[in-house]
Amino acid sequence: MQWTQARRAQKMNPSVIREILKVTEKPGIISFAGGLPSPKTFPISAFQAACDKVLREDGHAALQYAASEGFAPLREQVAAMLPWPVDPAQVLITTGSQQGLDLVAKILVDEGSRVLVETPTYLGALQAFTPAEPDIVSVASDDQGVDLDDLRAKAEGARFFYVLPNFQNPTGRTMSEARRAALSAEATRLGLPIVEDNPYGDLWFDQPPPLPLTARNPEGCIYLGSFSKVLAPGLRLGFMVAPKSLYPKLLQAKQAADLHSPGFNQRMVAEVMKDGFLDRHVPTIRALYKTQRDAMLAALQRHMPEGVQWNTPAGGMFLWARLPEGMNAAQLLPRAVERGVAFVPGWAFYAGQADARTLRLSFVTASVAQINTGIAALADAIREQSLASALPSTVEST
Ligand code: PMP
Fold first, then answer.
1. Ligand 1 pocket check: which of 228, 317, 362 to mutate, most ligand atoms within 8 Å of Cβ?
2. Average pLDDT of 79-103?
3. Which of 44, 272, 273, 341 has the fewest CB neighbours in a 10 Å radius?
């Protein structure tokens, strides 16, 4: 039998991160690679109680097919928890925010459509957009967020700008208030729609991040949120808030994709979140992740050789580091794995020209003791690699 694959299938690539995760599944490897929330934060007993209650009181409906828009009480809870006025009719419950990215590509992107992304950006978004065969254009970004001059130069004809203002994956950086205000004004002036992805916004350490872009111009933005980082990723539940003009098309795309997100899970989440559960639960995640971030910063300070740079994320799960000149994070990885530690080389997150010296370190999955051991091992691997890369030129010059 001759199977001929669609062009979009040929454009799909295995996720580099999933490939790396396979290596890290070897026993004894300390992994800073995956974007896995700490399982210590999963509220198992709250789910156990909710599961019993949902099955007892609403079991038949919970196990039946349901509305594509989502479970109405959950849509109301989502609308109420967002910091701008949201009509529950604008909330679409999705199967993780990853599905939101897929739906966005389905209804907004044609072959060759220009889609703007930050430099670097979330790999899973690149994977979701790529089958629609867009022309993905990287917009220069600094530690405050996107470079508005570069955005202006590249915005013409773009279908949207995909942006992660809070504790970005992969860099951990946060867009400043001034940059948000300017971006929002500029996007409105240019008529440039924004797709705002915010799975990490609640995981701040010292102070909440500035207001989302969508709050400043709800008609010009699609907002993606997730329960993965504040409750549990295994639920596969997220949501999108869309302008009313786009909602029907997103709903049709959602129907075609999976009819609806699991009604049972939606009811459990609605039950768990009742009575302000997140207000009590999320601060415990913030406190844990802050301790972990501090442990990683201290270990980096203690162990890293001169020339290695890193940032101080104000929330979220990731820290972004850069190797000294002449080094390459992808080449470092096998050496690091040999020494028992894994990370994701930064090149995977660039839509355009990659900075080969960068790497992403997750500080939330490993324990504090493992963070210290793992960063020490990584520092050794860097020293070894820099000696090895120095060798050929020494040999040439002699
Ligand atoms: N967006 C970003 C920036 C992410 O980091 C992730 C998870 N890695 C997602 C979306 C998808 O999350 P989920 O589908 O679990 O809601």
1. 228
2. 98
3. 44
